[in-house]
TrEMBL record:
Keyword Transcription: yes
Swiss-Prot/TrEMBL keywords: Hydrolase, Transcription, Transcription regulation
Domain PAC: residue ranges: 472-524
Protein's UniProt keywords contain Transcription: yes
Stated name of the protein: SpoIIE family protein phosphatase
Coiled-coil residue spans: none
Xref: SUPFAM superfamilies: GAF domain-like, PP2C-like, PYP-like sensor domain (PAS domain)
Residue ranges occupied by any ANTAR domain in the UniProt entry: 15-76
Pfam family, one: SpoIIE
Residue ranges occupied by any PPM-type phosphatase domain in the UniProt entry: 564-771
Entry-linked PROSITE patterns: ANTAR, PAC, PPM_2
Length: 772
């Protein structure tokens, strides 16, 4: 047992030694590559051949007492002038106080490790040389595929099983790397958000940087760097360093060799093949080649080829447009129409683009010209193929017709009598609930798809159309295979030949189900409305009969003890506005005269029945000999407790012929009007709220002594109320009419009703009292 353990320990030691030797060999390889680059720079600067330059580099390192590898990094950094040079300020180039290589040395060593064009080796070199000193513990290098797919080209720091699970990411998964590929800009996460998708997603809480790997304006992949713990926001220096690493990764990914700076050279074989492809298209096509600026970015696209079907928007010949840049040829389209942005995106991501309607613009003699076209573009190698098709008037009219048929749920058909061929448009298959691949239904078999009760109507339609050769139409219920029943209207006309023979039938089906059910609903609504109107008219008739039975328009005048009382009642002109206005003038057992008017709130049968209850209750209570204030108090209790929430206003007066005194009280009602000596005045109002508002309410009494030839008016608000005037203004108008002289009381009251300016079409009660 002990011997077995010893053998296992020896085997583990051997594996560890081999791993160390392999890492050392890799570092030696990277170091030799970096020293080789520096030696090549010295050869270019005239320091002899490779041997002399290498010796010169070693002598410089000895003289400056700087490690040879760090000196090689300084030489490469000073001569390159690339993105790595600008990663950190010059102070950052030197080694740190602990003897570790500086940041730029790490980047140059990582760059040397990526020269093998092996993404896996490059990923391992980047993690060991450049990212581990920054605290990162793993990275993934993704190569961009078609339509947003990703392939794991290299990785470091992840378990083998994790890498295998994420070897390929289909389009539309929505990983962090795919989001960056779509947005074309880097993302930084101080801690991995919940629900984030991507490699290493089980490492919750760690930081992550996701950057596009771009070369010559093309995004060839994505670099994803992971930290084991949350991190603060990146410093500008670290951000620049990560950008430089992403650019280094782009050179190791597939397609990097297609992004060279050869846009101004003669067309190569790939270019010729793409031109042949464009010439084979029936739509206008452009082949666009990127123009790369000094910062290795796409500044524009050159129109390298136009096919034979190309038609310039501004009317220029092909030879003029070919060779121009896209921004030069179409500045309006490139900047305002969004076309240039889409070309950039397709070239960068490789994801095709298509739009059915895009505005294209051009300048014709400095006048902007705009048109609408369907546009498509795709990347082929380092070029972009752009095609468009300008909408013609015929196409627009056809689309408009199809759109109108869809909105109107109309489908057209044509049926040949000679060949028996039936042609349907696409909308008609949808109406019948049939797939587009099914056979159209000929007219002779239409009854098989209709309700049996509609067969007679369909037969009459076919006889008119086919035998009498006249245009015809009918409606039927379509029974579809999916169980849905639709109401269809068919309209058709015959097509005859030169000799008058029937050649074909043309027509259209329309789904009128919505209209049918709307008509059914309207008919039911009309029936219910008619019933409601009849019931309402009946209630109004009953209310009017009840009101007229109790409140005749001109009852007999009361004439007792020198007091003449006349009454006028004017009902509402509209029957449905029958209200609860009431009056009463009666001689009590004590020979006193009770005068009262009131107005129950509302209209209709409820107001009329409420009026009957209050009027009869007041007449019965008045027989007790109580005063008007007490009577209104009792009447308030009746309205509140013994009716169905009836509220009303009222004026009640008790006239004593012996003393000629009138004691009166009111419950929220307009004041009586006293006419004396040719002058009309409104009596001061005693306190008192409307009837039925409260269970118990106090009411005040006022006393007025009548003189010979005085006239007293008691009325409801239907006499004076107007929508455009206040109550006070309406009352002043009544006073101006009331003070005019009149010989007889009856004619006097008729004149007041005639000159009344009320516009509310409400009931009106008017009591006139004349003391002789």
């Amino acid at each position: 047992m002990t011997g077995g353990n010893q053998r296992l320990d020896a085997l583990a030691a051997t594996v560890e030694q081999l791993r160390s030797d392999l890492a050392l060999a890799q570092e030696s390889t990277d170091a030799r590559a970096l020293i080789g680059i520096a030696t090549g720079i010295l050869v270019e600067r005239g320091h002899g051949g490779p041997t002399e330059a290498a010796q010169h580099l070693e002598s410089l390192a000895e003289a400056s007492r700087v490690p040879l590898l760090e000196l090689a990094a300084d030489v490469v950094n000073a001569a390159s002038g690339d993105a790595v040079t600008d990663v950190l300020p010059p102070a950052a180039v030197n080694a740190d106080p602990h003897g570790a290589p500086g940041a730029v040395l790490r980047l140059r060593a990582a760059e040397a490790g990526s020269l093998s064009s092996d993404p896996q080796s490059a990923a391992e070199a980047l993690l060991d040389q450049a990212l581990a000193p920054l605290g990162a513990d793993s990275l993934a290098l993704w190569a961009a595929g078609q339509d947003g797919a990703l392939v794991l080209a290299g990785h470091a720091g992840f378990p083998r099983g994790e890498a295998e699970r994420w070897r390929y990411v289909p389009p539309g998964v929505g990983t962090l790397a795919q989001q960056v590929l779509t947005e074309r800009k880097p993302r930084w996460y101080g801690s991995l958000p919940a629900g984030a998708l991507g490699i290493g997603q089980r490492r919750r809480g760690g930081a992550r940087a996701v950057l596009p790997a771009e070369s010559a304006g093309r995004i060839l992949g994505v670099l994803e760097v992971c930290w084991p713990h949350p991190q603060p926001p990146l410093t500008p220096a670290t951000t620049r360093q990560l950008d430089a690493l992403a650019d280094l990764c782009a050179h190791t990914l597939p397609g990097a060799d297609l992004g060279g700076h050869h846009t101004d050279s003669h067309p190569d074989d790939a270019m010729n093949a793409l031109g042949d492809l464009a010439d084979g298209l029936l739509d206008p096509a452009l082949v666009l080649r990127p123009l790369i600026d000094a910062q290795d970015a796409v500044s524009d696209f050159r129109i390298a080829h136009t096919n034979a079907h190309f038609t310039d928007l501004a009317g220029r010949p092909r030879s003029t447009v070919t060779g121009m840049s896209l921004l030069e040829a179409y500045p309006l389209t490139a900047r305002e129409g969004g076309l240039y942005e889409h070309v950039q995106r397709v070239h960068a991501t490789g994801e095709p683009f298509r739009s059915e309607r895009m505005a294209l613009g051009a300048l014709v003699d400095d006048v902007p010209l705009s048109t609408v076209a369907s546009v498509g573009m795709a990347r082929f190698g380092d070029s972009v193929l752009l095609t468009w098709r300008v909408e013609s008037e015929t196409v627009r009219l056809a689309e408009l017709l199809q759109h109108a048929q869809r909105l109107g749920r109309i489908g057209g058909f044509e049926e040949s009598v000679v060949s028996r061929q039936v042609i349907w448009n696409s909308q008609l298959f949808s109406l019948f609930g049939l797939p587009p691949s099914s056979s159209p239904v000929p007219l002779e078999r239409l009854h098989r798809h209709a309700h049996p009760d509609d067969s007679v109507a369909i037969g009459r339609f076919l006889r008119t159309l086919l035998h009498h050769r006249h245009s015809a139409s009918t409606s039927f219920r379509l029974q579809r295979a999916d169980g849905v029943v639709r109401h269809i209207r068919i309209v058709a006309e015959p097509v005859t030949g030169p000799a008058g023979q029937l050649v074909a039938v043309r027509g259209a089906y329309q789904d009128v189900s919505s209209q049918h059910w709307t008509e059914v609903a309207l008919a039911a609504t009309r029936d219910r409305l008619a019933d409601s109107e009849q019931q309402s008219a009946e209630r109004n008739r009953l209310a009017l009969q009840l009101q007229q039975a109790i409140m005749p328009p001109s009852p007999p005048a009361v004439d007792t003890a020198g007091l003449r009382v006349a009454v006028r009642y004017r009902p509402a002109e509209e029957g449905h506005l029958v209200g609860g206005d009431w009056y009463d003038a009666v001689v009590l057992p004590s020979n006193k005269v009770m005068l009262a008017v009131g107005d129950v709130a509302g209209h209709g049968i409820k107001a009329a029945t409420g009026m009957v209850v209050l009027r009869n209750a007041l007449r019965g209570l008045a027989a007790t000999g109580a005063g008007p204030a007490q009577l209104l108090g009792w009447l308030n209790s009746v309205a509140h407790h013994l009716t169905d929430q009836v509220t009303a206003t009222a004026v009640c007066g008790i006239y004593d012929p012996g003393t000629r005194q009138l004691r009166w009280a009111r419950a929220g009602h307009p004041p009586p009007v006293l006419v004396r000596g040719g002058e009309a005045t409104a009596l001061p109002l005693p306190g008192g709220i409307l009837l039925g508002a409260m269970p118990e309410a106090p009411y005040e009494e006022h006393l007025v002594t009548l003189e010979a030839d005085d006239r007293l008016l008691m009325y409801t608000d239907g006499l004076i109320e107007r929508r455009d005037l206040s109550v006070q203004q309406s009352l002043e108008h009544l006073l101006s009419i009331a003070q005019e002289p009149a010989p007889e009381l009856d004619k006097y009251l008729d004149r007041l009703l005639t000159h009344s300016r009320s516009d509310t079409d409400d009931d009106t009660c008017l009591i006139g009292v004349h003391l002789r």
